[in-house]
Amino acid sequence: MIKPVKKKIETKKKTVKAEKKESDIQQIVNHYFFTKGLNLDEIKENAKKQKIIYSRFTKPAKQLLDLAGSVEKAKNAMNTVSEWAISRNLDYAIETVFKKWLELDRLKPKEIVKKPFYDGNRMVWSDAKRKWFVVTPENDWLEFADKEEKIEWRIVK
Fold first, then answer.
1. Among residues 63, 6, 2, which one has the least CA distance to residue 29?
2. Percent of the chain clearing pLDDT 70 (strictly above)
3. DSSP line for 133-149
4. Which of 74, 64, 22 is nearest to 44 (CA)?
5. What is the C-alpha separation between 23 and 48, in angstroms, rounded?
6. Taking a C-beta distance cutoff of 8 angstroms, is the pair 46, 40 a contact?
7. Exposed, middle or buried by CB within 10 Å (0-12, 13-18, 19+), for 139?
8. What are phi and psi of 45, to 5 degrees?
9. What phi, psi does 118 have (nearest 5°)?
10. How many whole angstroms separate alpha carbon 157 and alpha carbon 149?
11. pLDDT of the chain, 157 residues: tens digit per residue
12. Is 112 in a helix, a strand, or coil?
């Protein structure tokens, strides 16, 4: 009688750490904080210190996901609203995206207007006289006689 030979088969156990993937809701909440200027480490740190109550943002994120249909559409809508709000110095939340949902295509960031200055004084263009005038602090209008290259354009909020 032939005895069966038992072979020892060694299998190497591979320890593969599966990377934790963010859920769709987590992606939306984290993207909200990214638009506010926080990175992932700051979000985690603030959540530990209870400066951010992360769970407060999950319900609106789920509602936004349902409204948008996909994570990418939700993120794009949030980007549009955040640019619009930041340009107007407004605070915004995830709920703001709901309120502005119907007008997303019309939301544009506020235009940056540059105004002319000369030696720190405001300038005004007169269409009637077709000349530049410098307005002094005493509200005197002086005709501008220098070169136009000397005009300084500043962003005034």
1. 63
2. 87
3. EEEPTT--EEE--S-GG
4. 22
5. 20
6. no
7. exposed
8. -65, -45
9. -135, 120
10. 23
11. 565 555 555 555 444 454 567 788 889 988 998 888 888 888 788 788 887 787 888 899 999 999 999 999 999 999 999 999 988 889 999 999 989 999 988 888 888 888 889 888 889 988 888 888 899 989 888 888 888 778 888 887 6
12. coil
For residues 113 and 154, the answer to whether their CB atoms sit within 8 Å is no
Q: What is the residue-wise DSSP string for 23-83?
A: PHHHHHHHHHHHHTT--HHHHHHHHHTTSS-GGGGHHHHHHHHHHHSSHHHHHHHHHHHHH
Is the CB of residue 30 less than 8 Å from the CB of residue 43? yes
Q: Which of 57, 95, 56 is nearest to 78 (CA)?
A: 95
Give the C-alpha distances (Å, rounded to integers) separating 118 from 18, 19, 106, 155.
63, 59, 36, 14
C-alpha distance from residue 2 to each of 5, 7, 135 (Å):
9, 15, 113
Distance of CA 119 to the CA centre of its chain: 35
Residues 118 and 137: beta-carbon distance below 8 Å: no
